[in-house]
Amino acid sequence: MTSITAALTRHNGADWELTPADIDDPRAEEVLVRIVATGVCHTDVGVRDGHLPMELPGVLGHEGAGIVERVGSAVSDISVGDHVVLSVGLCGECDHCLRGLPTYCEQGYVRNFSGRRPDGSATLRVDGAEVGGNFFGQSSFATYALADRRSVVPIPADVPLELMGPLGCGLQTGAGTVINALRPEAGSTLVVFGAGAVGMAALMAARIVGCATIVAVDLHRSRLDLALELGATHVVDAHDADVVGAVRAACGGAGADYVVDATGVAPVAAQAVGSLALRGRCALVGVYPPDAELRIPAGALFFGQSVGGVVEGDSVPKVFVRRLVELWRQGRFPFDRLVEYYDFDDINTAVADALSGRVLKPILRIG
Questions:
Q1: What stretches in the chain show pLDDT beneath 70?
Q2: Domain count within the chain
Q3: 17 and 127 in contact (C-beta within 8 Å)?
Q4: Contact, 264 vs 42, CB < 8 A?
Q5: 65, 153, 275, 287: which has the fewest Cβ within 10 Å?
Q6: Angle between helices 221-230 and 197-209 in degrees, nearest 10
Q7: 303 part of a folded domain
Q8: Structural domain boundaries, residue 194
Q9: Could you tell me if 55 and 157 lie in one domain?
């Protein structure tokens, strides 16, 4: 056991509390990481608010970056001292993992949301009592995290480690949805509903792959202004009385070839689908409440249009995270423009600022 400090979520709706905890020693295929910084993602808030399952009391956090302190006896591809980003939990052995689609791992629920290892054992204790951990295979709202080797992505030691954590989830999701899942052709049109961190990552990825028309839709003027700086060719204020009409006009009247809904708001997702051109594709990547229903007229899908969810950008994290690091180095994926840093004990302020729209991507400095 190692003594740590963790941000504990005691029950749905509760503020985070920094508290002493104990974390297990790494098993054969596990890695103990000293967390330097971790992003705050809306999925953390979704669990806190009961929109997604997780054993509580528990420790959330799933965009961790840190330095490897210990490795299990069966770990050969990761070394003590490596700088790493932690990503989604996966088994590496099911059909989806072996086909290069690990974010659809057949053990995805148990490895990411059960609060425990796949065998049911706990990784964290508070005052001697087991609490939920292993969130997204890491629970990085803590000074140390325990992760399966398959989820640990070594990155170059000369990039700023405190910046890199969000590549493990939110930014991977947005960029990967465009680059890996939608794969828009150069010269095509792409629209992003919701210019938060995920949406901005999708927008920057659209610029990387050569989309000619890139439209951002959001409620916040400051986000729309930043979207224009990061590659949007057009912006639409979501307060507009006819958002779908404005989006279609920005796309030349015919609608969009590709649309990403990053809002997690079902009526907005319906607008996203309504913005599609003939044979257009809409990707849903937001965290929707469990009772959300998507109401779409049948005619909106009649002419070859399609809509479906994308998980973690259809990425292979050990490959894609490193590619995003290199794109950042080249100045082509400037996600540092989205970030604001907070001390660990300001976690509740960071969450509040994200929910208000004041900050796109909070990062907690931990160690």
A1: none
A2: 2
A3: no
A4: yes
A5: 287
A6: 20
A7: yes
A8: 174-310
A9: yes
The set of residues, in sequence order, having a beta carbon less than 8 Å from that of 121 and lying 6+ positions away, is: none
State whether 145 and 50 are in the same domain: yes
How far is it, in rounded angstroms, from Cα 95 to Cα 112? 18
Which helix H or strand E contains 79, and what residues bound it? Answer: none
| Measured distance CA(284)–CA(135) in Å, rounded | 22
228 to 19, 181, 231: CA distances (angstroms): 42, 24, 5
Q: How far apart are CA 310 and CA 314, in angstroms?
A: 6
- CA–CA gap between residue 143 and residue 364 (Å, rounded): 11
Contact 71, 137 (CB under 8 A): no
DSSP category for residue 92:
S
41 is written with which tokens? 């993602």
Question: How many CB atoms sit inside 10 A of residue 157's CB?
Answer: 10
Same domain, 157 and 191: no
**pLDDT, tens only, 122-176:** 999 999 999 999 999 999 999 999 999 999 999 999 999 999 999 999 999 999 9
Q: What is the DSSP letter of 31?
A: E
Query: What is the C-alpha to C-alpha distance for residues 194 and 1, in angstroms, rounded to an integer?
Result: 42
The verdict on residue 321 lying in a domain is no
Residue 49 · residue 115 · CB < 8 Å = no
Q: b/e per residue, 59-69, with b = 16+ CB within 10 A?
A: bbbbbbbbbbe
Cα separation, 199 vs 170, in Å, equals 9
- Count Cβ atoms within 10 A of the Cβ of residue 208 and give its class: 0-12 exposed, 13-18 middle, 19 or more buried: middle
pTM: 0.95
Has residue 271 been placed in a domain?
Answer: yes
Encoded tokens for 209: 């792959």
Amino acid 289: pLDDT:
81
What's the pLDDT score for residue 255?
Answer: 95
Copy the structure tokens of residue 196: 């938060």
Q: Tell me: the pLDDT tens digits for 273-301?
A: 999 999 999 999 988 888 888 899 888 89
Are 252 and 276 in contact by the 8 Å Cβ rule? The answer is: no
